[in-house]
Amino acid sequence: MSERTVLVVVHDYPPIRSAGTERVLKFCQYLPEFGYRPIVLTTGRYGGQPDDAQRDVHRADDLVHALFSPLRRGKAAGIAPEEQVRIATVSGGSLLGRLRDRSMIPDTKIGWLPPAVQLGRRLIAERGPQLIFSSSPPETAHLIARRLARGGIPWVADLRDGWLFEPPVPSLRSGRLRRAVESRMERSMAETAAAMVAVTDPITEDLQTRYAGCIGRTRTISNGYDAADFAALARQRAADGLFRLTYTGAFSGSSQGRSAEALFAAAGQILDADPQTRLRLEIVGPASEMERGLAETHGVASITSFLAPVPRRQAYQHQLDADALLLVTAPGVRSVATSKLYDYIGAGRPVLALAQGNAAAETVERFGLGLTVAPDDAAEIAAALVELMRRHAAGDAWPGFEEARRHFERRELTHSLAHLFDEVLEAA
Fold first, then answer.
1. 228-407 maps to which CATH number?
2. Which of 123, 269, 284, 376 is the most buried (most CB within 10 A)?
3. Buried (b) or exposed (e) across 202-240, using 16+ Cβ within 10 A?
4. What does the alpha-carbon distance between residue 100 and residue 105 come to, in Å, rounded to a whole number?
5. Model's pTM, two decimal places?
Protein backbone atom coordinates (compact mmCIF):
# COMPACT_ATOMS: atom_id res chain seq x y z
CA MET A 1 0.00 0.00 0.00
CA SER A 2 1.38 3.38 -0.98
CA GLU A 3 1.90 6.04 1.66
CA ARG A 4 -1.04 8.32 2.29
CA THR A 5 -0.86 11.94 3.41
CA VAL A 6 -2.76 13.40 6.37
CA LEU A 7 -3.01 17.13 7.10
CA VAL A 8 -2.70 17.55 10.88
CA VAL A 9 -4.29 20.75 12.24
CA VAL A 10 -3.03 21.41 15.75
CA HIS A 11 -2.21 24.58 17.69
CA ASP A 12 -0.05 23.08 20.46
CA TYR A 13 3.10 21.84 18.77
CA PRO A 14 6.79 22.40 19.51
CA PRO A 15 8.17 24.83 20.50
CA ILE A 16 4.93 25.06 22.49
CA ARG A 17 4.90 22.71 25.47
CA SER A 18 1.53 21.92 26.96
CA ALA A 19 -0.20 18.85 28.31
CA GLY A 20 -1.50 18.04 24.85
CA THR A 21 1.63 18.62 22.81
CA GLU A 22 3.11 15.17 23.30
CA ARG A 23 -0.03 13.38 22.10
CA VAL A 24 -0.04 14.83 18.60
CA LEU A 25 3.77 14.98 18.41
CA LYS A 26 3.99 11.23 19.03
CA PHE A 27 1.17 10.51 16.58
CA CYS A 28 3.14 12.37 13.92
CA GLN A 29 6.34 10.55 14.87
CA TYR A 30 4.87 7.06 14.49
CA LEU A 31 2.21 7.49 11.77
CA PRO A 32 4.72 6.89 8.93
CA GLU A 33 5.28 3.36 10.27
CA PHE A 34 1.63 2.68 9.48
CA GLY A 35 1.47 4.25 6.03
CA TYR A 36 0.58 7.88 6.78
CA ARG A 37 2.80 10.90 6.17
CA PRO A 38 1.78 13.86 8.37
CA ILE A 39 1.79 17.45 7.13
CA VAL A 40 1.48 19.62 10.24
CA LEU A 41 -0.42 22.91 10.12
CA THR A 42 0.20 24.79 13.36
CA THR A 43 0.62 28.28 14.78
CA GLY A 44 3.55 30.57 14.09
CA ARG A 45 2.96 32.91 17.02
CA TYR A 46 5.59 31.27 19.20
CA GLY A 47 8.23 30.96 16.52
CA GLY A 48 9.37 27.84 14.75
CA GLN A 49 11.94 25.07 14.96
CA PRO A 50 15.11 24.74 12.90
CA ASP A 51 13.92 21.42 11.47
CA ASP A 52 10.38 22.55 10.50
CA ALA A 53 10.98 21.87 6.79
CA GLN A 54 12.44 18.44 7.48
CA ARG A 55 9.48 17.50 9.66
CA ASP A 56 6.96 19.01 7.18
CA VAL A 57 5.71 21.56 9.69
CA HIS A 58 3.94 24.69 8.37
CA ARG A 59 3.10 27.70 10.54
CA ALA A 60 0.31 30.25 10.19
CA ASP A 61 0.34 33.51 12.16
CA ASP A 62 -2.34 34.66 14.60
CA LEU A 63 -4.08 37.91 13.62
CA VAL A 64 -4.50 39.03 17.23
CA HIS A 65 -1.03 38.10 18.35
CA ALA A 66 0.04 41.71 18.48
CA LEU A 67 -2.79 42.55 20.90
CA PHE A 68 -2.82 39.55 23.20
CA SER A 69 0.02 37.26 24.12
CA PRO A 70 -0.46 34.56 26.80
CA LEU A 71 3.12 33.41 26.28
CA ARG A 72 5.33 32.90 29.26
CA ARG A 73 8.83 31.47 29.28
CA GLY A 74 10.42 29.15 31.78
CA LYS A 75 13.24 30.61 33.84
CA ALA A 76 14.91 27.51 35.22
CA ALA A 77 18.61 27.39 34.41
CA GLY A 78 19.75 24.63 32.14
CA ILE A 79 16.39 23.92 30.55
CA ALA A 80 16.57 23.75 26.77
CA PRO A 81 14.57 26.38 24.85
CA GLU A 82 12.17 23.79 23.45
CA GLU A 83 11.27 22.90 27.04
CA GLN A 84 10.69 26.47 28.11
CA VAL A 85 7.76 27.65 26.04
CA ARG A 86 4.50 27.33 27.86
CA ILE A 87 0.98 28.56 27.18
CA ALA A 88 -1.53 29.78 29.71
CA THR A 89 -5.02 28.31 29.59
CA VAL A 90 -6.53 31.35 31.26
CA SER A 91 -4.90 34.67 31.89
CA GLY A 92 -6.73 34.98 35.18
CA GLY A 93 -5.21 38.12 36.63
CA SER A 94 -5.87 41.22 34.55
CA LEU A 95 -9.26 42.63 33.63
CA LEU A 96 -8.18 42.77 29.99
CA GLY A 97 -7.16 39.14 30.10
CA ARG A 98 -10.47 38.06 31.61
CA LEU A 99 -12.40 40.04 29.01
CA ARG A 100 -10.35 38.41 26.27
CA ASP A 101 -10.90 34.91 27.59
CA ARG A 102 -14.66 35.38 27.85
CA SER A 103 -15.32 37.28 24.65
CA MET A 104 -13.35 35.27 22.09
CA ILE A 105 -15.39 32.28 20.85
CA PRO A 106 -14.67 29.39 20.93
CA ASP A 107 -11.27 30.34 22.41
CA THR A 108 -8.50 32.92 22.39
CA LYS A 109 -6.85 31.30 19.36
CA ILE A 110 -9.66 32.32 16.97
CA GLY A 111 -7.27 34.85 15.37
CA TRP A 112 -5.31 31.86 14.04
CA LEU A 113 -8.27 30.70 11.91
CA PRO A 114 -8.09 32.95 8.81
CA PRO A 115 -4.33 32.52 8.15
CA ALA A 116 -4.52 28.80 8.94
CA VAL A 117 -7.40 28.25 6.52
CA GLN A 118 -5.51 30.16 3.81
CA LEU A 119 -2.31 28.17 4.36
CA GLY A 120 -4.25 24.91 4.69
CA ARG A 121 -5.95 25.42 1.33
CA ARG A 122 -2.57 26.03 -0.29
CA LEU A 123 -1.17 22.85 1.26
CA ILE A 124 -4.20 20.88 0.05
CA ALA A 125 -3.77 22.23 -3.49
CA GLU A 126 -0.04 21.49 -3.51
CA ARG A 127 0.11 18.22 -1.57
CA GLY A 128 -3.30 16.61 -2.02
CA PRO A 129 -3.76 15.01 1.43
CA GLN A 130 -6.23 12.14 1.60
CA LEU A 131 -7.30 12.97 5.17
CA ILE A 132 -7.53 15.84 7.67
CA PHE A 133 -6.90 15.31 11.39
CA SER A 134 -7.50 18.08 13.94
CA SER A 135 -6.86 18.06 17.68
CA SER A 136 -8.25 20.27 20.45
CA PRO A 137 -7.98 22.28 22.60
CA PRO A 138 -8.10 24.92 21.30
CA GLU A 139 -11.36 24.17 19.54
CA THR A 140 -10.43 26.65 16.83
CA ALA A 141 -8.46 23.76 15.29
CA HIS A 142 -11.76 21.98 14.52
CA LEU A 143 -13.25 25.12 12.95
CA ILE A 144 -10.22 25.29 10.66
CA ALA A 145 -10.44 21.60 9.77
CA ARG A 146 -14.18 21.84 9.08
CA ARG A 147 -13.58 24.61 6.52
CA LEU A 148 -10.73 22.72 4.89
CA ALA A 149 -12.82 19.55 4.69
CA ARG A 150 -15.51 21.25 2.60
CA GLY A 151 -13.63 20.21 -0.51
CA GLY A 152 -14.62 16.62 0.17
CA ILE A 153 -11.61 15.45 2.20
CA PRO A 154 -12.58 13.14 5.11
CA TRP A 155 -11.94 14.72 8.50
CA VAL A 156 -11.17 13.08 11.88
CA ALA A 157 -11.52 15.26 15.00
CA ASP A 158 -9.53 14.52 18.17
CA LEU A 159 -10.70 15.84 21.56
CA ARG A 160 -8.00 15.91 24.25
CA ASP A 161 -10.58 17.56 26.57
CA GLY A 162 -14.33 17.79 26.39
CA TRP A 163 -15.68 20.81 24.52
CA LEU A 164 -18.93 21.58 26.32
CA PHE A 165 -18.66 18.45 28.48
CA GLU A 166 -16.38 19.07 31.49
CA PRO A 167 -14.19 21.73 29.82
CA PRO A 168 -10.87 22.55 31.54
CA VAL A 169 -12.19 25.95 32.65
CA PRO A 170 -15.99 25.60 33.08
CA SER A 171 -16.49 29.27 34.03
CA LEU A 172 -15.50 30.38 30.53
CA ARG A 173 -18.46 28.52 29.03
CA SER A 174 -21.04 29.28 31.70
CA GLY A 175 -22.80 32.08 29.82
CA ARG A 176 -26.08 31.10 28.11
CA LEU A 177 -25.33 32.92 24.83
CA ARG A 178 -21.79 31.56 24.58
CA ARG A 179 -22.93 28.01 25.28
CA ALA A 180 -25.61 28.34 22.60
CA VAL A 181 -23.06 29.48 20.02
CA GLU A 182 -20.54 26.82 20.95
CA SER A 183 -23.24 24.17 21.07
CA ARG A 184 -23.91 24.84 17.38
CA MET A 185 -20.17 24.64 16.69
CA GLU A 186 -19.82 21.34 18.52
CA ARG A 187 -22.89 19.91 16.78
CA SER A 188 -21.46 20.89 13.41
CA MET A 189 -18.26 19.03 14.29
CA ALA A 190 -20.19 15.96 15.38
CA GLU A 191 -22.28 15.95 12.19
CA THR A 192 -19.50 16.83 9.74
CA ALA A 193 -16.47 14.87 10.91
CA ALA A 194 -16.12 11.41 9.39
CA ALA A 195 -15.00 10.15 12.80
CA MET A 196 -14.08 11.50 16.22
CA VAL A 197 -11.52 10.42 18.76
CA ALA A 198 -11.68 11.19 22.48
CA VAL A 199 -8.94 10.82 25.03
CA THR A 200 -11.16 9.13 27.67
CA ASP A 201 -14.31 7.01 27.70
CA PRO A 202 -16.48 9.61 29.51
CA ILE A 203 -15.91 12.09 26.65
CA THR A 204 -16.71 9.42 24.08
CA GLU A 205 -19.87 8.39 25.94
CA ASP A 206 -21.02 12.00 26.27
CA LEU A 207 -20.69 12.64 22.53
CA GLN A 208 -22.56 9.45 21.71
CA THR A 209 -25.31 10.34 24.18
CA ARG A 210 -25.87 13.89 22.93
CA TYR A 211 -25.35 13.22 19.22
CA ALA A 212 -26.92 9.99 18.02
CA GLY A 213 -24.96 10.15 14.78
CA CYS A 214 -21.73 9.76 16.73
CA ILE A 215 -22.51 6.19 17.71
CA GLY A 216 -20.13 4.02 15.73
CA ARG A 217 -18.11 7.03 14.59
CA THR A 218 -16.50 7.93 17.92
CA ARG A 219 -13.92 5.93 19.81
CA THR A 220 -11.46 6.34 22.63
CA ILE A 221 -7.73 6.50 21.99
CA SER A 222 -6.11 7.46 25.27
CA ASN A 223 -2.94 9.32 25.98
CA GLY A 224 0.08 7.15 26.61
CA TYR A 225 3.80 6.92 27.21
CA ASP A 226 6.72 6.35 24.85
CA ALA A 227 8.89 3.40 25.80
CA ALA A 228 11.78 5.08 23.98
CA ASP A 229 11.74 7.90 26.56
CA PHE A 230 12.67 5.44 29.30
CA ALA A 231 14.89 3.06 27.31
CA ALA A 232 18.20 4.74 28.13
CA LEU A 233 17.35 5.43 31.79
CA ALA A 234 18.05 3.23 34.79
CA ARG A 235 16.69 3.38 38.31
CA GLN A 236 19.09 5.12 40.69
CA ARG A 237 18.11 4.80 44.33
CA ALA A 238 19.70 6.81 47.10
CA ALA A 239 21.18 4.76 49.94
CA ASP A 240 19.43 6.75 52.68
CA GLY A 241 16.64 4.24 53.33
CA LEU A 242 13.90 6.82 52.76
CA PHE A 243 10.58 5.96 51.11
CA ARG A 244 10.11 8.58 48.40
CA LEU A 245 6.65 9.62 47.29
CA THR A 246 7.32 11.77 44.22
CA TYR A 247 5.21 14.20 42.21
CA THR A 248 6.44 15.68 38.92
CA GLY A 249 4.87 18.71 37.27
CA ALA A 250 3.02 21.82 38.43
CA PHE A 251 1.88 21.08 41.97
CA SER A 252 -0.28 24.13 42.55
CA GLY A 253 -3.77 23.36 41.34
CA SER A 254 -6.07 25.30 43.61
CA SER A 255 -7.51 27.20 40.65
CA GLN A 256 -8.67 23.87 39.21
CA GLY A 257 -10.11 22.60 42.47
CA ARG A 258 -7.07 20.50 43.32
CA SER A 259 -5.52 20.84 46.72
CA ALA A 260 -2.78 18.90 48.43
CA GLU A 261 -3.85 19.88 51.93
CA ALA A 262 -5.20 16.41 52.74
CA LEU A 263 -1.90 14.88 51.59
CA PHE A 264 0.14 17.03 53.97
CA ALA A 265 -2.35 16.37 56.75
CA ALA A 266 -2.00 12.63 56.09
CA ALA A 267 1.80 12.81 56.23
CA GLY A 268 1.48 14.73 59.49
CA GLN A 269 -0.69 11.96 60.94
CA ILE A 270 1.92 9.37 59.98
CA LEU A 271 4.71 11.38 61.63
CA ASP A 272 2.61 11.89 64.77
CA ALA A 273 2.08 8.13 65.02
CA ASP A 274 5.75 7.34 64.37
CA PRO A 275 8.25 10.24 64.38
CA GLN A 276 10.91 7.86 63.04
CA THR A 277 8.99 7.10 59.85
CA ARG A 278 11.43 7.16 56.90
CA LEU A 279 9.17 9.11 54.57
CA ARG A 280 10.12 11.79 52.04
CA LEU A 281 7.66 13.82 49.95
CA GLU A 282 9.38 15.01 46.77
CA ILE A 283 7.70 17.69 44.65
CA VAL A 284 9.50 18.28 41.34
CA GLY A 285 8.10 21.32 39.59
CA PRO A 286 6.35 24.64 40.29
CA ALA A 287 4.67 24.94 43.69
CA SER A 288 2.98 27.97 45.16
CA GLU A 289 3.51 29.55 48.54
CA MET A 290 0.16 28.09 49.53
CA GLU A 291 1.46 24.52 49.14
CA ARG A 292 4.68 25.37 50.94
CA GLY A 293 2.64 26.92 53.73
CA LEU A 294 0.46 23.82 54.01
CA ALA A 295 3.57 21.69 54.51
CA GLU A 296 4.59 24.01 57.35
CA THR A 297 1.10 24.06 58.88
CA HIS A 298 0.89 20.28 59.06
CA GLY A 299 4.41 19.84 60.39
CA VAL A 300 5.86 18.05 57.39
CA ALA A 301 8.13 20.73 55.93
CA SER A 302 11.16 18.80 57.23
CA ILE A 303 10.28 15.74 55.15
CA THR A 304 9.12 17.64 52.06
CA SER A 305 11.43 18.63 49.22
CA PHE A 306 10.24 21.29 46.78
CA LEU A 307 12.52 20.99 43.75
CA ALA A 308 12.78 23.32 40.77
CA PRO A 309 11.26 22.37 37.40
CA VAL A 310 13.45 20.12 35.29
CA PRO A 311 13.51 19.06 31.63
CA ARG A 312 11.26 16.20 30.67
CA ARG A 313 14.07 13.61 30.62
CA GLN A 314 15.08 14.50 34.18
CA ALA A 315 11.45 14.27 35.28
CA TYR A 316 11.39 10.70 33.94
CA GLN A 317 14.51 9.95 36.00
CA HIS A 318 12.84 11.28 39.17
CA GLN A 319 9.86 9.04 38.44
CA LEU A 320 12.07 5.98 38.02
CA ASP A 321 13.92 6.75 41.24
CA ALA A 322 10.74 7.10 43.31
CA ASP A 323 9.27 4.39 45.53
CA ALA A 324 5.76 5.58 44.73
CA LEU A 325 4.31 8.32 42.55
CA LEU A 326 1.65 10.83 43.52
CA LEU A 327 -1.30 11.72 41.29
CA VAL A 328 -3.72 14.52 42.22
CA THR A 329 -6.86 15.21 40.16
CA ALA A 330 -9.66 17.74 40.35
CA PRO A 331 -12.78 16.44 42.15
CA GLY A 332 -16.04 15.88 40.31
CA VAL A 333 -14.52 15.66 36.80
CA ARG A 334 -15.20 12.19 35.36
CA SER A 335 -13.24 12.65 32.14
CA VAL A 336 -9.89 13.57 33.70
CA ALA A 337 -6.95 11.23 33.13
CA THR A 338 -3.89 13.41 33.23
CA SER A 339 -1.01 12.72 30.84
CA LYS A 340 1.15 12.41 33.96
CA LEU A 341 -0.48 9.07 34.75
CA TYR A 342 0.84 7.54 31.54
CA ASP A 343 4.35 8.75 32.24
CA TYR A 344 4.00 7.06 35.62
CA ILE A 345 3.02 3.85 33.85
CA GLY A 346 6.20 4.13 31.80
CA ALA A 347 8.22 4.51 35.00
CA GLY A 348 6.57 1.42 36.49
CA ARG A 349 6.33 2.74 40.03
CA PRO A 350 3.16 2.24 42.15
CA VAL A 351 0.75 5.17 42.14
CA LEU A 352 -0.98 6.87 45.04
CA ALA A 353 -3.92 8.44 43.21
CA LEU A 354 -5.85 11.15 45.00
CA ALA A 355 -8.73 10.51 42.66
CA GLN A 356 -12.18 8.95 42.73
CA GLY A 357 -14.88 8.38 40.14
CA ASN A 358 -12.86 9.55 37.15
CA ALA A 359 -10.91 8.06 34.26
CA ALA A 360 -7.60 8.31 36.12
CA ALA A 361 -8.90 6.35 39.11
CA GLU A 362 -10.50 3.79 36.80
CA THR A 363 -7.19 3.18 35.03
CA VAL A 364 -5.24 2.75 38.27
CA GLU A 365 -7.86 0.32 39.62
CA ARG A 366 -8.38 -1.59 36.35
CA PHE A 367 -4.70 -2.44 35.94
CA GLY A 368 -3.74 -2.63 39.62
CA LEU A 369 -1.19 0.19 39.40
CA GLY A 370 -1.47 1.36 43.00
CA LEU A 371 -4.11 2.71 45.36
CA THR A 372 -6.89 5.25 44.82
CA VAL A 373 -8.26 7.35 47.68
CA ALA A 374 -10.61 10.25 48.21
CA PRO A 375 -8.62 13.44 47.52
CA ASP A 376 -9.89 15.18 50.67
CA ASP A 377 -9.76 12.29 53.19
CA ALA A 378 -6.51 12.65 55.16
CA ALA A 379 -7.06 9.49 57.20
CA GLU A 380 -7.66 7.40 54.08
CA ILE A 381 -4.61 8.90 52.37
CA ALA A 382 -2.49 8.14 55.45
CA ALA A 383 -3.67 4.53 55.50
CA ALA A 384 -2.95 4.11 51.78
CA LEU A 385 0.52 5.63 52.13
CA VAL A 386 1.33 3.32 55.05
CA GLU A 387 0.15 0.36 52.94
CA LEU A 388 2.39 1.41 50.05
CA MET A 389 5.33 1.65 52.46
CA ARG A 390 4.53 -1.79 53.89
CA ARG A 391 4.35 -3.37 50.44
CA HIS A 392 7.59 -1.68 49.43
CA ALA A 393 9.37 -3.04 52.52
CA ALA A 394 8.00 -6.52 51.78
CA GLY A 395 9.25 -6.36 48.18
CA ASP A 396 5.76 -6.79 46.72
CA ALA A 397 5.48 -6.42 42.96
CA TRP A 398 2.78 -4.65 40.97
CA PRO A 399 2.29 -7.02 38.01
CA GLY A 400 -0.42 -4.87 36.38
CA PHE A 401 2.21 -2.55 34.94
CA GLU A 402 3.22 -5.09 32.29
CA GLU A 403 -0.26 -5.14 30.76
CA ALA A 404 -0.69 -1.37 31.19
CA ARG A 405 2.55 -0.70 29.34
CA ARG A 406 1.41 -2.78 26.39
CA HIS A 407 -1.97 -1.04 26.36
CA PHE A 408 -0.74 2.57 26.62
CA GLU A 409 2.46 2.57 24.57
CA ARG A 410 2.45 5.50 22.12
CA ARG A 411 3.37 3.45 19.09
CA GLU A 412 0.47 1.04 19.64
CA LEU A 413 -1.95 3.92 20.24
CA THR A 414 -0.80 5.45 16.95
CA HIS A 415 -1.45 2.07 15.30
CA SER A 416 -5.05 2.33 16.54
CA LEU A 417 -5.35 5.82 15.07
CA ALA A 418 -3.96 4.66 11.72
CA HIS A 419 -6.47 1.79 11.71
CA LEU A 420 -9.26 4.34 12.20
CA PHE A 421 -7.86 6.38 9.31
CA ASP A 422 -7.98 3.23 7.17
CA GLU A 423 -11.63 2.69 8.05
CA VAL A 424 -12.53 6.30 7.25
CA LEU A 425 -10.84 6.20 3.85
CA GLU A 426 -12.39 2.84 2.97
CA ALA A 427 -15.83 4.27 3.74
CA ALA A 428 -15.24 7.52 1.84
1. 3.40.50.2000
2. 284
3. bbbbbbbeebeebeebbbebbbbbbeebbeebeeeeeee
4. 10
5. 0.90
